[in-house]
Amino acid sequence: MEILNNLSVVSTFCLLFHMIINPISVTAKPSNDLSYFDPIISNLYEPSFEFNSSSGKKSLIPNLDTDCSVWNRACSEEILRIAMNPENVKWIKSVRGRIHENPELAFEEFETSMLIRRELDRMEIGYKFPLAKTGIRAMIGTGGPPFVALRADMDALPIQELVEWEHKSKNDGKMHACGHDVHVAMLIGAAKILKAREKHLQGTVILLFQPAEEAGNGAKRMIEDGALVDVEAIFAVHVSHQLPTGVVGSRTGPLLAGCGFFRAVITGKQGQAAKPHQSVDPIFAASAAVISLQGIVSREVNPLDSQVVSVTFFNSGDDLDVIPDRVEFGGTLRAFSNASFYQLVKRIEEVIVDQARVFKCSATVDFFKDADTIYPPMVNDDHLYEHLKKVSTHLTGPKNFQVVQPVMGSEDFSFYSEVIPAAFYYIGIMNETLGSVHSAHSPHFMIDEDVLPVGAATHAAIAERYLNDQAL
Hints:
This protein is of the alpha+beta class. The chain has twelve helices and 18 strands. Strand 1 (about 50) and strand 2 form a beta hairpin. Helix 3 (about 75-85) packs antiparallel against helix 12 (about 450-470) and helix 10 (about 380-395) packs across helix 12 (about 450-470). The two termini are about 35 Å apart. Residues about 1-60 have low confidence and may be disordered.
């Protein structure tokens, strides 16, 4: 389509781009305040034109022939233009809406997986299916090295949605309350961008659509089924209600904690409460153990090495006149390094068993190692973190990248990071005007959909530029 090369047209495009991204501030700015995006907008006033020899006019069609073997401003501009194309934005929002309407729990993502495969088929992108029951491994590029992967999780949560909107969940008791529908839509959006620019890819991009992040360690099953064959680096994103829409956040090193759970059983001898000397009291022993567990972090751990041990349940029955013969209690442990995490596991068991012995009781501790409930820490590779920071700031400007603090939450993307270099980042969805301010796992959770094309563009730029950098 030919258009006039004049400032008003470009200004309209810039305004549309600003509206899609969203004002990047905790308090929404007036719609006519473009100051925050001045660095981006100044670039867009000097677009990469394609000359139409038949008409002698210039066109704002993305110039896909721009040489991006050495990355330049035009390469980032072209990726943004594809992502922000109104038809693409409409399409990616429709994909997200369809997924959101039909949330599926861990390893039950059959319809979601089918939807993804249909979209990949339409784009003529090859894939392997199934991995980990419902997972997909798609491929774009030369088919040869280097190989870089992008991952999105597909599963929903057993939560009843309380948000009234066009695409509210149609499955009672199930909801995409953590943004995985958004993750999938952004990765499909990135696939479309990368396919359009496939001839520029100096290697191969692997797209991983993964089941069961919330429960079941889907990442482990994907790895077992060959998701990382030939892959040398991997990236993933998660939406964040704490960052303004479109802002990318990450950090080098530890980002998310390793997570585990434990259940202890202390056994004594039942007896009448009026005659405690004739019993062996497991409540006394368990109480001492619970108190002693708090000393692990407060007295054995470097205060600069953040760790958590929390007892979350205690059950000894409800007979008010009997000292029971057993007590059950348990909770969770968190740490930011594998060494610290497994030291916590060791010390929790020692403390409980030894405290029980002091009070003439016996104890066992179960860490559910065979039930897929242990998640290692998510530690970002230094070089990959610098890469995503470089790509993000080049794509949308340095003001739209933030260094974030580590959090005690966990993510099974950490299993990939144990095998190959990995980097995990957040992208903001916070928009107070829309009410997109609720934390994940809330029945009121919602997102600002203007994040979708931004996330797709960020994914695509990270992957394409990684391959180009490896070729240099």
